[in-house]
Amino acid sequence: MHINPMDTEGYITGEHPKWTQSYYFNFYDPKIKVGGFIRVGVLEHQRETNTWVVVFMDGKPLYTRVNLNLPYTAGRPDPGMEISGTRLTSLKPLSNVRIEHNTPDFKLDLICQGLQPMVDSVAMSIDAESSLRKEVTWIHMEGTIRVTGFITFRGEDTIEIDATGFRDISIGPRNWDHLLCYELSRPVFSNGMAFMGSHAISSKGENSYLRVWYDGKKWLPVKRFEDRTEYEKDGYTIKSLHWRFWDAVDNMWEYTGKSIFAWPSSHDTFMINRQMMEYRLSDGMVGYGLAEAMFRLDTLRPGPAFDMRMANTLKPRS
């Protein structure tokens, strides 16, 4: 099935029973220590929509609205969609999006302006044809963004936002039962460089990787990366990470990360922890961005699945 990337903000359907379109934005403003995670996902054949709007300040939640089985909507960002108080409007395809959220306690109005053309991380990753790719996503558009606008809390306190972050558009199946776990890291550095890497492990032990690198001028494929992640005692909160990767021209890059904010939540038989991280390149360049860790709940307890996750966490991977 051929999908034109320029059409991904509009309505697209497929035959897979768990066909999904999702739109995800995250941002952080280090000057005022405010950030957020915003996502809308539409499950075509399950006739459901899910959303989350999570905004935090100084490492603590400020506002959260998470809905996992809202009524289906046929709307998409192009030309516009609204569900549970959240509205997405594509102002320029794959570039500028307006996000609005309006409830009695909290208002949000943000413009997400692309800092470079979005790219499909599936198409740029060597192992794009794995079974994980076929069951979890067909297209995964990535891009860094400048996020400006304001939030208003309880109708009184208005906070201006001038942040950076990542956005993605995912098109295709979202069959979580095919996954054992995944880790994801998305730093955006103050010099404009950015990396997106994710490592997924299937329930059968298959490894799959998505990875792209923006060197400040252009997106480059990544040949391989090594993801070293340390977890808190709870088994799902990232305590720190130390990743390195090799780009298409054989430059090696290395960075570390520490958590600023964590938002764990369980969905049916899975645990997802979305975290905002402070990142640092080996030369000292600072950045901020998302990290995610997702596990089947049975991997949080001793047993074969847990042993598989730990084995894959501790050894170098390529």
Tell me about this structure.
- This protein is mainly β and 318 residues long.
- It has two helices and 19 strands.
- The chain has helices at residues 131-136, 304-314, and strands at 19-29, 34-43, 48-57, 60-71, 81-83, 86-92, 96-102, 106-114, 119-120, 139-153, 157-173, 179-189, 194-202, 207-214, 219-231, 238-247, 252-267, 270-281, 286-296.
- Strands 1, 2, 3, 4, 5, 6, 7, 8, 9, 10 and 11 form an eleven-stranded antiparallel sheet that branches. Strands 12-13-14-15-16-17-18-19 form an eight-stranded antiparallel β-barrel.
- A hairpin with a 2-residue loop joins β17 and β18.
- Residues 314-318 have low confidence and may be disordered.
What is the N-to-C order of secondary-structure elements (H for helix, E for strand)? Answer: EEEEEEEEEHEEEEEEEEEEH
Q: Could you tell me the number of beta strands?
A: 19
Alpha-carbon Rg, integer: 18 Å
Give the quaternary arrangement of the chains: single chain
How many individual helices?
Answer: 2
Shape designation: globular
Head-to-tail CA distance between termini = 28 Å
Major sheet description: 11 strands, antiparallel
Helical percentage: under 10%
Mean pLDDT: 91
Q: Which class best fits the helix and strand makeup?
A: mainly beta
Tell me what portion of residues adopts beta-strand conformation.
over 45%
Give the uncertain stretches in residue-range form: 314-318
Quick structural overview:
By secondary structure, the protein is mainly beta.
Layout of secondary structure:
Blueprint: E1 19-29, E2 34-43, E3 48-57, E4 60-71, E5 81-83, E6 86-92, E7 96-102, E8 106-114, E9 119-120, H1 131-136, E10 139-153, E11 157-173, E12 179-189, E13 194-202, E14 207-214, E15 219-231, E16 238-247, E17 252-267, E18 270-281, E19 286-296, H2 304-314
Antiparallel strand pairs: 1-2, 1-11, 2-3, 3-4, 5-6, 6-7, 7-8, 8-10, 9-10, 10-11, 12-13, 12-19, 13-14, 14-15, 15-16, 16-17, 17-18, 18-19
